[in-house]
Amino acid sequence: MIVYEVNLRVEREIAAAYASWLHTHVAQMLALPGFVGAELFEDPAANDASNVAWCCQYRLVDAAALERYLQEHAPRMRADGVARFGARFSATRRVLQPVAVPLAAPA
Fold first, then answer.
1. Global confidence as pTM
2. Tell me: the pLDDT tens digits for 32-45?
3. Whole-angstrom distance, CA of residue 40 vs CA of residue 2
4. Any bridge partners for residue 66, and if so which?
């Protein structure tokens, strides 16, 4: 399992419309092969008077599923948001992989 994280900064003036679109977008992402879950978070520390900050973390079965998404679906999925909202939002992405060393609770 890996996490594909998308960090968003959205102008407050369009935040409600963007949030509505984002829920549909996440559902479309989850319908793609290899996606098994998603969570959406607000990042209050990154909010300011002009923008809201959200973080969407998608869970995928493996790195191969992410690579297929990036090659086959990402351009279309990303273009939809740009077509609707233009430069009124920004997105950065990162991939998180599990650590091989198991973590244990303190005794």
1. 0.89
2. 999 999 999 999 99
3. 16
4. none
